[in-house]
Specification:
119 residues; 59% helix; elongated
């Protein structure tokens, strides 16, 4: 699977390693951008805004939405569930925990399933 298919297509399956690699990369990116935002914010001026860092965080947040949905859809496919299971994350308190358990810790279904062969 090439980068375009991985980040922009909702078809196929990915394993836990790719899922965790993407997740850690996004966390590192936003930690760095958060540091930039902190360093460029003018705390002495209450109406000063967040500066360049805030703009970078907003742009990165918008840019990561589609790839994050594609990665999560493929991970749900790997455990033989529809990509609609992404919506479980909207359930307060337990939704994100259920998604983390299934996507981060459950092994994919062995062999081919209705979403294709394991990657």
């Amino acid at each position: 699977m090439n980068w375009g298919q991985l980040l922009f297509s909702f078809d196929g399956r990915i394993g836990r390693g790719v899922y965790w690699g993407f997740t850690v990369a996004v966390i590192v990116l936003f930690c760095i951008l958060g540091g930039v935002m902190f360093m460029t914010t003018d705390f002495s001026n209450p109406q000063g805004g967040t500066g360049l860092g805030g703009i970078l965080v907003a742009v990165a947040g918008l840019a990561i939405i589609w790839p994050a949905l594609a990665i999560h859809a493929k991970r749900w496919h790997d455990v033989d569930k529809s990509a609609w299971w992404i919506l479980i994350g909207l359930v307060p308190a337990v939704g994100a925990l259920i998604a983390l358990v299934f996507n981060g810790f459950m092994p994919g279904s062995p062999g081919p399933n209705r979403f294709g062969n394991p990657s």
